[in-house]
Every structure is written in C-alpha cells, then in structure tokens.
Design a protein that fits this description.
The protein contains 11 helices and 8 strands. The protein is of the alpha/beta class. The chain has a single domain, classed as Alpha/Beta hydrolase fold, catalytic domain (Rossmann fold, 3-Layer(aba) Sandwich). The longest helix is centred in the N-terminal third of the chain and has 15 residues. GO terms for molecular function: hydrolase activity.
C-alpha cells in the first residue's frame, strides 16, 4: 500500500492511506522504520477490515522539517488528531517498536479510545535505548555531517542488526531508503536525539490502569528488545495475552509475517 494522501497538522505533513471495508484497524510503526514495515500485513487484512497506515512525522514519506520535535509525545498527539480526522471512534490499533509507546500515550494521555491494542516487540517499558542511541545523543549534531557513503553504511548496519532472519537486499534497501539524502540523513539522527526516556517511564507507571483488551507478540530472538522485556510488559498490563514467535527478531512482522498475521487475524476476529 502506497501512502497517497496527506494530513496537515501543526505545520507538518503526515502521509497516510487506507484500504478495505469493515472494522477499522490502525497500524503504528516504530523507529527507524516507516509504515512499510506493516504494509504486507495491512494488505492481507484489507479484504475484511478498513486498514489505515501512516508515517510518523519525521519518518518515511511524512515531512522532516528540522524545526519540528519528533519525540513520542508529539507522535501521540498526531495519532489522536489523525483518529479524529478519519472519524474513527474506537479502532483496533496495531503497533510495533516506538509505535507502542505512541499508541499507549495517545490512549493514556491524549484520551484516544481503542477497541483493542495489539503490540509487537514494542517500546513501552525500560530499559530502553541502545549503545548507538546513547552515542548519538552524546554527540548531538555531529553524525548528521558524516559523508553520505559512511552514513549509508551506518544505517545499513543499524537496520541489519535488528534482524534475526535474512530478508534479502530488496527489503533492506526499502528500510534504509527513507534515511538517505541530505534530508533523510539529518532526520535519522534527529529522531534519535529527540528520543525521550522520561515518556517511557511515565507511561510504564500508568500501564496497570489500562482497561482494554491487549495482545502482545514477541520474537524470541529480538536482539534490540529482549523477550524478557515482552514478558515483563505482559505481566504489567491487566489481562494481557502474550504470544512468543520462535526464531524471529525485532522486525517480527517482516521476519515471521505468517505467524503475526495469524495471531492478529484471530485477535481481531474475537473483538471485531
């Protein structure tokens, strides 16, 4: 699914699109990804559901203005505004990586109402932030000036580190592409520099108050956010169900699309 529509919000241009009819399902991607990570699953669901994809401001096809903040608090407000723009009152929300924090914060802080929440290898509780994140934050503004070929090598290595299974060069190229060029390079480091651990800690304290159906899936070989974190998250969320997907890494929806689609389809069928 290509994002052919845009939503103007607080000076930003948010790329989005929708397909299909039926109960609404909204997908949220994480960092350093785009909606492309959810596109195959969304396409498969579009025969029975109205699926909505969007790129976070500062990511993918959305605007990357250096004057704009790109932390999860901003993205949560953007999600709440998008739900209002789409006229969706209680959609099912599906989130990966930082998208988990965005979706949770949109619900807990911005008051967005969901029918259910499906979380895949999400950023939601600590510890958070890789050694690479800390390095970029300690050297703000420096890496944006790297020669383009060095920057591309850095992004390729970073993205590749998230994978447990080989997805092939075409998929890797698609994941790296939004961060190339002068605009993409600056935006790549800016979204790391703007990463706010305090938001994670605040939302973690609020997790026991969640009052909606929550399903969690986790790749057993996630090298970025270990399975132990997923198990701890499931223990913190009242009534949450956890499915562990063997042999999958952090990009579980691309590494094990069949397993994720099966789990998500069964979950939606229960609550649609």
């Amino acid at each position: 699914m290509e994002l052919s529509r845009t939503f103007a919000w607080e000076g930003r241009r948010i790329a989005w699109d929708t397909r299909g009819d039926g109960p609404a399902v909204v997908f949220c991607h994480g960092t350093p990804w785009s909606s492309a990570t959810w596109a195959p699953v969304a396409d498969a669901l579009a025969t029975e559901y109205a699926v909505h994809l969007w790129d976070l401001p500062g990511y993918g096809r959305s605007s990357k203005d250096p004057a704009h903040d790109v932390h999860a608090g901003v993205h949560a407000r953007a999600l709440a505004a998008l739900l209002d723009h789409w006229g969706l009152e209680r959609p099912h929300v599906v989130a990966h990586d930082l998208g988990g924090l965005v979706a949770l914060r949109a619900h807990l802080v911005e008051g967005a109402a969901y029918a259910s929440l499906f979380l895949a290898d999400v950023v939601a509780i600590g510890p958070s932030g890789s050694p690479f994140f800390r390095f970029v934050q300690e050297h703000r503004g420096v890496l944006a000036g790297l020669p383009a070929y060095v920057h591309e090598a850095v992004v390729r290595a970073y993205v590749g580190d998230a994978l447990h299974r080989d997805l092939g060069s075409e998929t890797l190229d698609a994941l790296v592409a939004p961060w190339l060029g002068a605009e993409g390079q600056a935006a790549f480091y800016r979204q790391i520099e703007d990463y706010d651990v305090d938001l994670i800690e605040a939302d973690e304290r609020a997790l026991p108050t969640l009052d909606l159906p929550v399903r969690i899936v986790w790749g057993t070989d996630d090298g970025w956010i270990p399975l132990a974190t997923g198990r701890r998250l499931a223990a913190l969320v009242p009534g949450a169900e956890l499915t562990e997907i063997p042999g999958a890494g952090h990009l579980v929806q691309l590494e094990a699309p069949g397993e994720v689609l099966t789990a998500l389809s069964a979950w939606l069928a229960r609550g649609a």
